[in-house]
Amino acid sequence: MRRIIVGVSGASGSIYAIQTLRALRAIGGIEVHLVISPQAKQTVELETDVKPPELEAYADVLHDSGNLAASISSGSFKTDGMIVVPCSMRSASAIAYSLNDNLLVRAADVCLKERRTLVLVVRETPLHVNHLRNLTRAAEAGAIILPPVPGTYSRPKTIEDVVNHTVGKVLDQFNIDNDLFRRWQGAE
Asked: What is the DSSP string of 2-59?
């Protein structure tokens, strides 16, 4: 069975976390380890009708963000990698500089040091130069920076279509087959 960590930070865009967790559950065959920052729990409630326990129910294993001794804090615990969705600039900066003061950042740091896939779905906009420098530093360490920018070639009709495009692109980074968005087939 594959094993993926999902980290949810307090950035706006919690619908991306919800849809990612739903997609992983629907695909099956993937053990999902979830770590949610305290701010993320508040943001989920502010932005959606989903309560944190509902979000947590999509995970196979739930980790406390303050538990730096959790299984996902060690490179000896094998995973396919991690998705940080949404990824706040604070979390991206902490990941870029290996500031392992919480489990979300520590698990991301482990993925980088073990050369496992780490996808940061950064949500801030616009970006100033320090954001860009921190994202560059994270990318240089091996992170994949995947902001939620929808491809409009699929002609999205709903917010779910827009969100699913990004979620599908995230899953593509792990070679997880999905049909969450219409793929480009070329011009006719």
From this structure: EEEEEEE-SSS-HHHHHHHHHHHHHH-SEEEEEEE-HHHHHHHHHHSS--HHHHHTT-
Q: How far is residue 122's CA from residue 129's CA, in Å, rounded to a whole number?
A: 15
SS3 180: coil
| 8 A C-beta contact, residue 68 and residue 48 | no
Q: What is the pLDDT along the chain (188 residues), one digit of tens a residue?
A: 899 999 999 999 999 999 999 999 999 999 999 999 999 999 999 999 999 999 999 999 999 999 999 999 999 999 999 999 999 999 999 999 999 999 999 999 999 999 999 999 999 999 999 999 999 999 999 999 999 998 898 899 999 999 999 999 999 999 999 999 999 889 87
Contact indicator for 25, 166 with CB cutoff of 8 Å: no
Bond into 147 cis (ω within 30): no
* DSSP code of residue 182: P
Q: Global pTM?
A: 0.97
